[in-house]
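The following record pairs a protein chain with its ligand, adenosine monophosphate.
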Amino acid sequence: MIIFKTAEDISSFLLQRKKTGTHIGFVPTMGALHKGHIGLIIQAKKECPLVVSSIFINPTQFNDPKDFEKYPSTVEQDIAALESAGCDVLFLPSVHEIYPAGISRPVNYDLGFLDTVLEAKFRPGHFQGVCQVVERLFRIVNPDNAYFGQKDYQQCMVIKKLINLLQLDINMILCPTERETSGLAMSSRNMRLSEENKIRASEIYRTLLNISTEIKNGQTDLTVIKETAISSLTKKGFIPDYVDIADAATLEPLDIWDGKIKLVALVAAFLDGVRLIDNMVIS
Ligand code: AMP
């Protein structure tokens, strides 16, 4: 695996490869890699002869400075994991390399409704920061395919919107959520949980399963389902930001289900000060 630290070096290397017709698959990450990230690399490797990953903890997408400070970093382990998964190129930039003009430059991506609900509501400015870094990375790497995890459902919709807004010629590939055997969605933030809390955290997955079962059993009043889920998580020691059920295609939160449209249930909740998110598509 070749490691690049500057935008100029990686861009010129990848441009040469593109000129010879090599398809480039790209997996952007913030590091502290786990099997969820590695799943994206493996899928990219199946579909593209040249796989590029990046590790960059993006300061502009953290609305909470403490969350940014506590974000785990395991670069040496990450390099070894990427290498054994068959990643060809790693981009490991500094903050200055990504933001030569500084991090406070204002950005305004027109994400519409997506920038008002769920994660956007509880993490103001988060998706603007995500778009800022993803646009910069896309322009540096210029990939054919970009791989993102369904674990961050709303983020995937935002990236699709970004690709459309910027009219980029990039296929966004959505990859399934990797889970622990307990059902807990793998996440870099899980590293901040004690072993006991990792077991407790799988309650989020069970909540999603319960929501799915209730809907499949014919409950169409989604408000009741959401309220039950919030109170059950709260009783089990979580501090939920939201439990919502939305149209899977638009993310519009719904109170009643017409029995036809595909739904997605989404949860964001704190456990022991660690913010966890997960979702489940219900069709
Ligand atoms: P992050 O490092 O958290 O920014 O995540 C980098 C990419 O990995 C994003 O596209 C995430 O959606 C994806 N990802 C994170 N966790 C998982 C998971 N458990 N399963 C699948 N993809 C994931």
